[in-house]
Amino acid sequence: MEDAKQLEAFEAKIASGQKIEPKDWMPEAYRKQLVRMMSQHAHSEIVGMLPEGNWITRAPNLRRKAILLAKVQDEAGHGLYLYSATETLGVDRAELLAQLHTGKAKYSSIFNYPTLTWADIGAIGWLVDGAAIMNQTALARGSYGPYCRAMIRICKEESFHNRQGYEIMMSLAQGTPEQKALAQDALNRWWWPAIMMLGPSDDQSPNSDQLMRWKVKMESNDAIRQRFIDRTVPQADFIGLTIPDKDMKFDEKTGHYTHGPINWDEFFDVIKGNGPCNAKRLKARVDADKKGAWVREAASAYAAKQAKEKQVA
Ligand code: FAQ
Questions:
Q1: What is the pLDDT of residues 269-281, one digit of tens each?
Q2: Which among 20, 1, 17, 18 is positioned nearest to 89, based on CA atoms?
Q3: Could you tell me if the CB of 245 is within 6 A of ligand 1?
Q4: Sequential DSSP letters for 140-171
Q5: Residue 112 beta carbon below 6 angstroms from any ligand 1 atom
Q6: Could you tell me if the CB of 200 is within 6 A of ligand 1?
Q7: What is the pLDDT of residue 1?
Q8: Which residue's alpha carbon is at the smallest distance from atom 18 of ligand 1?
Q9: Is the Cα dihedral 191, 192, 198, 202 positive or negative?
């Protein structure tokens, strides 16, 4: 079959709601887009362990520590499913990690902000995992089988992460005035970065058209952002916290919240590497890779020895 016919069959399959699987024919642009997006997603999960990992030794009690440990381990698991899913597209994990370590590959802007207080752990679960779920439940309905299947499990775990974060915020908001102030301060610092992590506005999103045509993305960045805002503002009201946006109001006519201007200069600056923690995050990943090299070598040597013994037996 020549390419035009293959493309037609591929697009018809997507239009009929069937999944594309690794051995199916796919246009090179589809494969490249998936590798870009899925590997950036995998890197985000792994880099995303760092801001919360910062508080494991300082969690306020044993229950909170156990929950946070479990959450951070879940994020490592998400990274692993996503690297494996990306490998089904014929790319090597070492190559993807090299792209992260040399700064060629992006990871989510949100993880370049610092976690200054315990309340930030609540804000991350509530807002960052909350935004991630909005985005990922849409991605789970997409066209590439291995990515969608990874999303289903990831979303279930993110749902627990989201609730534990909201529960931390609720406890602080109902606590002493100082505790409530900590929660408000965390909301003030994480609100706008969480809004931005859902990607640039649709008119500045060069990848969206192609990704939506091929049902990798099921909804635009702005549509998901609006849904996240509509769901989150009442949650803030419920626990007595204030969204740091003086223009935020509910529009009775549309049934949606309208919001003030988003500082896209800040977003583009962060993704260019100039956020408050970019250098620190990248260094932590590069150092971890170097420190873990002997483990990978030992595991490979052991696997080679086992294979040899099996051959002899
Ligand atoms: N950060 O054309 P678009 C999580 C880049 S997981 C950095 O709109 P696209 C769980 C984009 O790559 C969070 N860069 O791009 C967790 C592109 O540059 P490129 C990660 C960004 O792909 C919680 C350029 O801007 N989730 O949080 C960002 O159509 C707690 C133009 O943008 C995913 O990765 C950004 N925020 O839409 C873990 C989900 N936004 O590559 C630990 C999968 C955009 O052309 C702790 N990804 N850029 O040079 C997606 O859904 C999409 O890739 C978007 C961006 C929506 C993120």
A1: 999 999 999 999 9
A2: 20
A3: no
A4: TTSSBHHHHHHHHHHHHHHHHHHHHHHHHHHH
A5: no
A6: yes
A7: 58
A8: 106
A9: positive
Position in ligand 1 atom list of the atom nearest CA 135: 51
pLDDT band at residue 2, thresholds of 50, 70 and 90? low
Out of 37, 82, 155, 228, give the residue to mutate to test ligand 1, the one with the largest number of ligand atoms within 8 Å of its CB. Answer: 37
The arithmetic mean of pLDDT across residues 118-146, rounded, is 97
Full 3-state SS string of the chain = CCHHHHHHHHHHHHHCCCCECCCCCCCHHHHHHHHHHHHHHHHHHHHCHHHHHCCHHHCCCHHHHHHHHHHHHHHHHHHHHHHHHHHCCCCCHHHHHHHHHCCCCCCCHHHHCCCCCCHHHHHHHHHHHHHHHHHHHHHCCCCEHHHHHHHHHHHHHHHHHHHHHHHHHHHHHCCCHHHHHHHHHHHHHHHHHHHHCCCCCHHHCCCHHHHHHCCCCCCCHHHHHHHHHHHHHHHHHHCCCCCCCCCCEEECCCCEEECCCCCHHHHHHHHHHHCCCHHHHHHHHHHHHHHCHHHHHHHHHHHHHHHHHHHHC
Residue minimizing CA distance to atom 50 of ligand 1 = 37
Q: What is the mean pLDDT of residues 280-290?
A: 97
The pLDDT score that the predictor gives to residue 3 is 86
Residues 193 and 110: beta-carbon distance below 8 Å? yes
pTM score of the predicted model = 0.96
pLDDT at 51 over 70: yes
